[in-house]
Every structure is written in structure tokens, then in C-alpha cells.
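Second attempt. The first submission of Thaumatin family had a stray character pasted in from the spreadsheet, which I only caught after the job came back as garbage. Lesson logged: always re-copy from the clean sequence file. Corrected sequence (223 aa) follows.
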Amino acid sequence: MTTNTLSTFILLALLLLHSTNAAVFNIRNNCRYTVWAGAVPGGGRQLNPGQTWSLNVAAGTAGARIWPRTGCNFDGSGRGRCQTGDCNGLLRCQNYGTPPNTLAEFALNQYQNLDFFDISLVDGFNVPMVFRPNSNGCSRGISCTADINGQCPNQLRTSGGCHNPCTVYKTDQYCCNSGNCGPTDLSRFFKTRCPDAYSYPKDDQTSTFTCPGGTNYDVIFCP
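This time the job returned cleanly.
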């Protein structure tokens, strides 16, 4: 093996190693109340005010999300129920949460080795959130910090949160089941208060963000 070939091999190995590192998600509860974080993959954890959960997520993971759960009560075996964001009554989630819940969604090391991430209100809203990169020279974060629960339209109100209209009405107009829908007055309620967040399923253009693969992130409840 020549020196140039060896150098190329080492460089490719280092690039491969870098691109397959797990991403670290620091999930912090800045609320004045307890929040039970849910994560798929990752499970879940109780976060008292000021506590942080550091979660490693494997490179290449897609369809992932982190969300806050409120009003939870679990027994010693990790079984119970949450008022919002419940995941089949488990402390350590194995599936997505029940609306309403504010979502931090992401897919790692995708097209051109980019991470894709967003805050989605398609499942409604329960806790204010910031979702932001904290490494790799990537600095564009997303926030949804408006008082959506307090201002929620009456038809979307529920205990502990604010439903998205799809959850309430279950029609194609709001759920985009046929893939052909647009914004509505109710989705605009969310969009005007959190312009960077998904307000309905086809709200891609202003709601999806990217960072280079290998970036680490903060998810902050009540920033």
C-alpha cells in the first residue's frame, strides 16, 4: 500500500467514523412543574424542574421524536397514565404519544448526510419548546413559546393542552389524508404564534430545518 493510498484510506475511515457517531440530545425541563419526557427511540424519563436528560441517538435514525408529557402518575413498575402525551401508559415509551403534545421531530444522516429536524404542532400543543443545534457550526434553532394553551380556540381546548384540528374533526381538510390540502383558519392559529413550526401536515416549506450529520441538539421545555 502506497503512502497516498494509506492516507486516503485513513481519511475515508475518519469520515465514516464521524458520519456514524451518535447524536446527543440534551433534553432539559425549564418549566416550574414536572415534565415526563418521551422519546422514540429512547423511552422516557421524569424531569423535575431544572433537570436534564442526555439521550444518545444512533446515526441514521429516522422517524424519531421527543415530546413533553404532563400530568403523569406512574407506579414502581413504570406503568400509569399521563394527561397529555401518554404513550400506552408507560414511563419508558415504546410508541408515539397521544395528542395533544408538542413534538420535536428529527431524522439523522439523511440526504447528503444532513439531519432534518422540526417542531410540529400537527399533534397539537401542550408545553412550550425550543429545539436547537449546539455543535458542528449549526446555529439555526426553532422555537414555539407562545401561550397556545391560554389562547386555544374553544373547539380545540382540552385538559392540559390544545388539540390540532385534525385530532378533533378527523377530516381530510385538516388531516391531509389524500395529500391535497392547504392551511385553514385553525391551522393559522398555530402558525401565527409559532411561525417556524408545522401547523398542518403539508406545511413543509417554512418548517423543516437541516444541519450537517453529527450535530448535537438541545430540546428545552419552557425555555
